[in-house]
Amino acid sequence: MDVHEIPLSELYSELRSSENGLTTLEAEKRLLEYGLNHFEKRKHGVFISKFLKQFANLFAILLILASLLALFAEKIAPNQGNIYISIALLIVVILNAIFTFIQEYRSEKIMDSFKKMLPQFADILRDNKRQKVLSSLLVPGDIVFLNEGDRVPADGRLITCSQLKVDHSSITGESEPQLRSIESTNHNILETRNVVFSSTLVESGDGKAIVYATGKQTQIGKIASLTRSTSSVQTPLHREINRFIKIITLLAVLVGIIFFIIGYVIGEPLIGSLIFAIGIIVANVPEGLLPTVTLALSIASRKMAKKNALIKDLESVETLGSTTIICTDKTGTLTENKMEISSVALDLTIHPLIKEKIKQDPNFPFLLKTMALCNNAHLDSDKSIFLGDPTEKALLEFASSFGPIAKDLRLEELPFDSKLKRMVTLNKSGNKKIAYMKGAPEIVVEKCTFFLSQGRMQKLTPLKKNLFLKQSQDLAKEGQRVLAFAFKENKSNTLSDEDFTFIGLVGMVDPIRKEVPEAILKCHSAGIKIIMITGDHSLTAEAVAKKVGIIKPGKVRTITGDQLDTLDESTLKQYLKEENIIFARTNPMHKLRIVRALQSMGEIVTVTGDGVNDAPALKHADMGVAMGVEGTEVAREASDMVLMDDNFATIVNAVEEGRTIFENIRKFINYILAHLTPEFIPFIIFALFNIPLAITVILILAIDLGTEMLPAIALGSEKPESDVMKQKPLSKKEPLLNKRMLLGSYLVIGSISTIAGFSAFFYILFGGGWHFGDTITSTNPLYLKAVTAFFAAVVFCQVGNVLARKTNRQSLFESGLFNNRLIWLGIAVELSLLSIIVYLPATHSFFGTQPLSFFELFIGLPFAILIILLEEIRKYFIRQKIAFVEKYLAW
């Protein structure tokens, strides 16, 4: 038997304690045996070693190697510009390392936040006297005192209690404070009423408990350990960027080695072949990719912050866009997390909540008085707000809205009990003693002999009883929490709960957030499935799910935590495929199991949560979303995103932003890839046909780290296309870099840019008297001018490409040519840098350039216009849903 089921005398014996608690000497001994009452802090690695680890990835190693080779080349052949290449490459590596390093520190905060859940001091019985000690010094066997407003310092079994209610939402997910008792009420320790759990909050009443578990042995300690052992899931964007970098890196290295060997075989000097190989590698590696991705994600996260969604991990922005399933809480996320009166039923008539009309019912004054007097909620010291149980607060607020609250003297009380399911108070009203009752309808109705009709007592017949109970069941099916009210004149000196007069029913709800139904509809149209996972009762969960539109017409499968424990993995996965499924009365392990099962089915899962109990699932989910208002610090630290308004609709806005950023990242990767062709092809032509190299490594870096950066970032800030939330979520198998993108960027746009560059290059060379087969030095002004013209033509094609990439499906002119000012700023900066590199004499020696005539500068412009026109034609066919275009040209 567990600690909550054995007799107290047996528990005292097991814990080697008594109702007098422990002595200080015994407690000190046990402290050595059990350890401090806190959670083990994760050992953080050494700062410098963690930072250096960021330089161990393939991309960083390649760029460091290229930088060292450029440095080596500078030493052997000075003043060739290789030192600048070396420095530029190292700067790129360091910037990327700093970004990654910052992201890793986020996960290390999770365990620290669990410690904040514990109270600093505990009120205990030691040496047979009441005293305060640090909660970290509590040990099993200690006796603790609990009062309203206290945070429970350890897991304990109740010895005494008086109207004790504890908010267990952070552990069990229960939306309302739970009444405690000294008797065991359930075999499940999370459901029984005679225990209290570490970190939970005492809402009202008082009690005394014997500690049976401290530190990591408590329920919250086990959740902390579970969270600690739960691995974070790599974001789809992180996986895809890593994959993209590996492909590009391996391609660059392979081609670099091949051309190094070719150069050496055909008689090139070793240093010449080495510099040539460096050029090949630099030309094939998009050095600006990671900084551009980082900045684009930062812009997206700032936009989301304005919409009350705080992103902690930048890469998680895109994960939202890939989400296929959202596992959501109910209380506080779909609902407003407050109780309010939703219906009043008197003599089988449900009244509209309009003061003037409801006051006309003769039964109503009796109901108001019972609401006010059979109630333990109270005004705070400022007389401004009601304090106490949410249900009782809602009743008192409703009653007070009709005038001054009755203040009859309370003589006696039979407190609410989970078994008896009713509360009775005895009050003195003038010379009479009146008893008032509220509770579960089936209990209250059974205690009544009469009922009120038009303000007069009538005999309560079995038929009338059934009608009242039927009405209460109908209200409960609508998701309302139903209470029945009754009264009687107490003529004896003892208070009993028999022979009452039934007054009526009151239904209460936690109101649905008004934005939620529309948000759920948006999710469904976007192909996203919603699954509710709540600690609340299945009937309430199902009613709320119907109201907000989570479940569609048809059969609903509601699975409780106990039922989930009996399901094997294959059966669970089969149920998870169903359209209408809800999980109720779940615990942390249940939620984590559901998330893992969905992920094993290939789903990308977003999970919402607010309590400590949600932390493991939040951390393991592809996207963890915590509540910023009502959520615990633990949940916020374990999550990837925090909702500053606790509103489900905010998640949907974030999903739209996530989808947009994924499309935008694809746009600027396409944009970046397109100019790799004109950077790479000149090296091949130079090696195979002995034609002068049309672009230098330093100008390649000028494109990669200079002219392309701001336009690429501008693409990352593009607004969503009109149909973004009508598309299905991207498949997990859909790569960021696919064959269509390679085809569009390298072969189509890249080829046009290459032709533009060579057109300008050869125009200058031929115009200056050069012929095929002629040798020309790298310092010859004609050669430098031709290289400058090639560079200028590529930059103009970049301008055309960035405008063409503004949309994937919509026409550029339909979406708005000038609605993204950052793009035009980027183009302005791009052309300004071009002008500086081409016309500023101080830059000529550094970049190896020469000034161009007006015509020579704009040779690439017609090719830029061609890129825009070809893209408009492709998008037109995409919108017409032509199968060939969608299959091969939908880059």
Task: Give a written overview of the molecule.
The chain is 49% helix and 16% strand. It has 36 helices and 26 strands. The radius of gyration is 36 Å and the shape is elongated.
Structural class by SSE content: alpha+beta
How would a crystallographer describe the biggest sheet?
9 strands, mixed
Low-pLDDT segments, ≥5 res: 106-112
Please give the alpha-carbon distance between the first and last residues: 63 Å
Average residue-wise pLDDT: 83
Radius of gyration: 36 Å
- CATH homologous superfamily label of the largest domain: Calcium-transporting ATPase, transmembrane domain
Total beta strand runs: 26
CATH topology of the largest domain: Calcium-transporting ATPase, transmembrane domain
Number of self-contained structural domains: 5
- Given this structure, which CATH class of the largest domain is correct? Mainly Alpha
Task: Categorize the overall geometry.
Answer: elongated
Approximate strand percentage: 15-25%
